[in-house]
Design a protein that fits this description.
It is built from 8 helices and 11 strands. The strands form 2 sheets. Strands 1, 2, 5, 6, 7, 8, 9, 10 and 11 form a 9-stranded mixed sheet that branches. A two-stranded antiparallel ribbon has the order 3-4. Helix 5 packs parallel to helix 6 and helix 7 packs parallel to helix 8. The longest helix is centred in the C-terminal third of the chain and has 16 residues. It is globular, with a radius of gyration of 19 Å. The termini are far apart.
Length: 273
């Protein structure tokens, strides 16, 4: 459990001294290790028990913000639901929840029963949960430090009743490789996660951060399902010709996937049709 870029005397990410010992000074992982769950958290087993009826668990990640990760997660959830699958969409972007708006469920609230929190349902076979449903004012900033974010993510995973069975749970994550991501990989370590779909846009400024996201997945032993190139172009609704919006100066996400040795899943254009 020692990251590749850690100092020689690293105590390990699961140690009580992770992020706190003198050896951690100057380590790029210090803040993550200091705020992440330590040791055999009993919640890990409780989460695995809660999610054992979920057949497939998929994390949607992005190294860069603004690449359309939440849009992709939402559209994927609706597409699966429209294919007669039982789907759950969990939004763990604590500081920037956008799934309530994208699912048309703004203003809805989460209810609690003896079985746990009940998701909001835009369709009978699609349940959605987001911190956006728990805020009194949707315009209010969520100013939380790592431990409080970790606690909310743990509650989302442990205390939500998704029904008797889900075919797929899609977890929409915030951009980057921060507290939320480390918490998720820790809490889900015994829950048989299928892997991560990494979303990018074609331009180099996004691809640079996708490389870091792939590195994060490998360090945390999170399987990579593949990379999706979002906003690959603009599909004109009149002439049906696709034009590039973000020029892929280094051949885009497909070439990056080849270079990094991960599957390329395809391109999603901007299509107003």
């Amino acid at each position: 459990d020692v990251p590749e870029n850690a100092p020689e005397a690293c105590p390990g990410t699961s140690s009580d001294q992770a992020g706190k010992s003198s050896a951690c000074a100057g380590c790029p992982n210090q803040q993550l290790c200091a705020t992440a769950p330590k040791g055999p958290d009993p919640a890990i087993a409780q989460i695995a028990e809660r999610l054992k009826s979920v057949k497939h668990k998929v994390l949607v990640l992005s190294g860069k913000g603004g690449v359309g990760k939440s849009t992709f997660s939402t559209q994927l959830a609706f597409a699966l639901a429209n294919s007669n699958k039982q789907v759950g969409l969990l939004d763990v972007d604590i500081c920037g929840p956008s799934v309530p708006r994208m699912t048309g469920m703004e203003g809805e609230t989460v209810h609690q029963s003896n079985l746990g929190w009940s998701p909001v349902y835009p369709q009978d076979n699609l349940g959605v949960l987001s911190i956006g449903f728990l805020l009194d004012n949707p315009d209010e900033a969520v100013v939380w430090k790592g431990p409080k974010k970790n606690g909310m993510i743990k509650q989302f995973l442990k205390d939500v009743y998704w029904g008797d069975e889900l075919d797929v749970m899609i977890v929409d994550c915030p951009p980057g490789t921060s507290d939320e991501h480390l918490s998720l990989t820790t809490y889900l370590q015994t829950s048989d996660v299928d892997g991560a779909i990494i979303v990018s846009t074609p331009q180099e400024v996004a691809l640079v951060d996708v490389k870091k996201e792939i590195s994060f997945c490998r360090k945390t032993k999170l399987p990579i399902i593949g990379v999706v190139e979002n906003m690959s172009g603009f599909a004109c609704p009149k002439c049906h010709v696709e034009s590039p919006i973000f020029p892929p100066t280094t051949k885009g996400a497909e070439q990056l996937a080849v270079d990094m040795g991960v599957p390329f899943l395809g391109r999603v254009p901007l299509d107003p049709a």
